[in-house]
UniProtKB/TrEMBL annotation:
Belongs to the class-I pyridine nucleotide-disulfide oxidoreductase family. InterPro entries: FAD/NAD-bd_sf, FAD/NAD-binding_dom, FAD/NAD-linked_Rdtase_dimer_sf, Pyr_nuc-diS_OxRdtase, Pyr_nucl-diS_OxRdtase_dimer. The keyword Flavoprotein applies. Its cofactor is FAD. It comes from Nannocystis bainbridge. This is Mercuric reductase. SUPFAM superfamilies: FAD/NAD(P)-binding domain (SSF51905), FAD/NAD-linked reductases, dimerisation (C-terminal) domain (SSF55424). The keyword Transport does not apply. It comes from the Bacteria. Residues 4-324 form the FAD/NAD(P)-binding domain. Keywords: FAD, Flavoprotein. Residues 346-453 form the Pyridine nucleotide-disulphide oxidoreductase dimerisation domain.
Length: 458
């Protein structure tokens, strides 16, 4: 076998910076990728979807031009141009990743499918033909996850789409059926509503974004309903079938069995890890009931010298968490540190419009922990900058320890929510109290001024 200091299997968002760090430290690295350099985020996730969200927002604002006193002609959407813009930006990101890797002589880029054949030993079937047998002193698994296909009668007979398929549409669907009310479903639902589709969301749970507090799910539902999206809650899809050129979906709802007929079906009911083809048992690597690689707080698997990062290990499935995984391994394996996942903050943003951003504890989280808290909340209609922008939908809620006045978390539904959340996160990292932000001097007129207002709210 060809021996390497490090073998990185998969190219999620931890993989490239980790490979470059090892190469810079003089280690010989094998970088194995089956199909898409950059993983889900660059190719079918964050980069293309947020690019298309931006196009959809332009269409939305163009239709609202009259609200701002601007006359505009009828708005139409050219999905071919939208798709090409998206592809161009994806290519730019992928090419940048490839260039960084191939520029390092210590990195061997192997394009093919890898699987374990023994402890820290792999076989790589190269895409252009041939097989490589390789071994590494350190192995890092970063193979990510893919769309989880639900058990739904008739699904295999209809032309359903996942998030990747939606990115390739050259036409605006007449009626898009969205199966699932998580962040993927909501982002695509609003995006295509703004492109001009009729959209219906079918959600099994009693609220959208079921991991959020009930009031947050209701608020985001109200935003989407105002945008003209039909939402079926507590509705379980039972069967689906072709109906001529359309797709018929039958659901159990609180009102009994109901049918929907749409032109396109998006399945957004969850993600499953890419582990079944890796032959992990050959290397003594344990997985959980869902197929995720089991790791400890230092990202080590059950096999010595083997680590897992990103979505393949379960936990929060966010690009920034995968990137932080890379920092943990870099610190421990190259710098002699003792970094762990224990206690790390997990910020995230749902890129609807307005955005939904979260950091730390929600009010319900804090109450379940028995904490004595104060919940400070204001509507975005109390934020001067939001009113000036005619973007006053949503709210800002901060959870504060009643005794120490430490900020425990925040939930923001509003324009610029992700950026406001980042300010609160930095304050939490620095140990600033709610009164410190209440009394801070922020420039006027900015969205950040709302931190003065909310920290003083009762």
């Amino acid at each position: 076998m060809d021996g390497y200091d490090v073998v990185i299997l998969g190219s999620g968002q931890a993989a490239r910076p980790l490979a470059l760090a090892f190469a810079a430290a003089g280690r010989r690295v094998a970088f194995v990728e089956r199909e898409h350099l950059g993983g889900t985020c660059i190719n079918t996730g964050c980069t293309p979807t947020k690019t298309m969200v931006a196009s959809a927002r332009v269409a939305y604002l163009a239709r609202r031009a009259g609200d701002f006193g601007v006359r505009a002609h009828a708005v139409s959407v050219d999905m071919t141009r939208v798709r090409e813009r998206t592809r161009r930006i994806v290519r730019q990101f992928v090419d940048s990743s490839r260039a960084a890797l191939v520029a390092q002589p210590a990195i061997d880029l192997l394009l093919g499918a890898g699987r374990f054949v023994g402890p820290r030993q792999l076989e790589v079937r190269l895409n252009h033909g041939g097989v490589r047998q390789i071994a590494g002193e350190v192995i890092v698994i970063d193979t990510g996850a893919r769309t989880q296909v639900p058990r739904l009668e008739g699904l295999e007979q209809v032309p359903w789409l996942d998030h990747a398929g939606m990115l390739e549409l050259a036409v605006v669907p007449e009626h898009l059926l969205v199966l699932g009310g998580g962040y993927v479903g909501l982002e695509f639902a609003q995006m295509f509503r703004r492109f001009g589709s009729r959209v219906t969301i079918v959600q099994r749970a009693a609220q959208l974004l079921p991991r959020e507090d009930a009031d947050v799910g209701a608020a985001i539902g109200a935003v989407l309903a105002t945008d003209g999206i039909e939402i079926w809650l507590s509705s379980q899809a039972r069967r689906v079938a072709n109906q001529g050129q359309a797709i018929a979906l039958v659901c159990d709802t609180p009102g009994g069995e109901r049918s929907l007929v749409g032109s396109h079906l998006l399945v957004a009911t969850g993600r499953t890890p890419n582990t079944e083809a890796l032959d992990l048992q050959a290397a003594g690597i344990e997985v959980d009931a869902g197929g995720h690689v089991k790791v400890d707080e230092r990202l080590a698997t059950s096999a010595p010298g083997v680590f897992a990062v990103g979505d393949v290990k379960g936990g929060p499935a966010f690009t920034h968490i995968a990137y932080d995984d890379h920092r943990i391994l870099r610190t421990n394996l190259l710098e002699g540190g003792q970094a762990t996942t224990r206690g790390r903050m997990v910020p995230y943003v749902v890129f609807t419009d307005p955005e939904l951003a979260r950091i730390g504890l929600s009010g319900a989280d804090a109450r379940r922990e028995g904490r004595d808290i104060r919940v400070a909340r204001i509507g975005m209609d109390q934020v001067a900058r939001a009113l000036e922008m005619d973007e006053a939908r949503g709210f800002l809620e901060v959870v504060i320890d009643a005794r120490s006045q430490q900020i425990l978390g925040a939930t923001i539904l509003g324009v610029g929510a992700g950026e406001l959340m980042a300010v609160i996160e930095v304050a939490m990292m620095g140990g600033l109290t709610a009164p410190a932000l209440r009394d801070a001097t922020f420039a006027h007129p900015t969205l950040a001024e709302c931190l003065n207002t909310v920290m003083a709210a009762r």
